[in-house]
Specification:
about 35% helix
Length: about 100
């Protein structure tokens, strides 16, 4: 059994090391440093922060939970395929043919 974990220091704690010694079938594989794009939850956290948490102050824990529920409901109502990587800017198509030289007067 492979457990894929990030490089958080808690993953290297004594309890985790003792677990791996007690369960030899388990092997923990750490993803490379600076490879957050391999962790599939990272894009969701980015969206959740921008929809629910960014720029807001909450008075109670229930307000935080309600903001997260509202953001999740909004995300589910406006779902679309997730595109990995940076968004590409729209570039106008070039016309085929030979480039024209500017007229010099």
């Amino acid at each position: 059994m492979y457990g894929i974990v990030d490089n958080l220091s808690a993953q290297r704690a004594t309890d985790v090391l003792l677990f791996s010694l007690a369960h030899p079938r388990w092997e923990f594989v750490f993803q490379p440093t600076y490879a957050a794009s391999l962790n599939l939850i990272e894009p969701w956290w980015k969206v959740l922060r921008s929809l629910a948490l960014k720029g807001r102050r909450f008075q109670t824990w229930e307000d935080v939970c309600q903001a997260i529920r509202d953001a999740t409901a909004y995300w589910n109502a406006h779902r679309h395929p997730f595109v990995w990587g940076r968004r590409r800017r729209h570039r106008p198509r070039r016309r085929p043919g030979v480039a024209r030289m500017a007229k010099v007067a």
